[in-house]
Design a protein that fits this description.
Helix content is 30%, strand content 16%. The protein is of the alpha+beta class.
Amino acid sequence: MAMPSCAKTKALIFCFIDVNDNPINADHISEIPGLQAYPHHIGSAVIKPEDEGKLKHRALSAMREQTQRQLLQIQKQAELLAQQARTINERIQLSENIYQAKMAFEPFVGHTYHLYESHNQWVLLMLGPEEWGKSIPQHLCFKASVSLLSDHTWDIVCTASE
């Protein structure tokens, strides 16, 4: 068999190969092989596809646990705010009662005064039940010791039942 004339020189070896004919399909190659979802050569790391349902289940479980914890924290904060609102409302009601009471002096902030009931009327006095000496006057019934706060509301220090 005779050798073709183009094979006689190294330059002519490629005469049968079209330089524009690439044997690799352009649709199956990537310009950025590191972003492929599968290994692109034999030395690549093994890439195993994740079970999508398992992955979503773990993510949902973590999300539910975290959001439940946050909702519980918000619920505790709301309960604390509600308790603080009730306390303020009680101070408002007490303050209104005290300001309607009979008092013969100007109360000072931070001082403790004593609330009595006398003939179905509230009376604010400076003397506490233990400061009357031998006996408290018959017409006075001790209700509470109160302290004037800086916002001019009153706070109960102690009540008759304590």
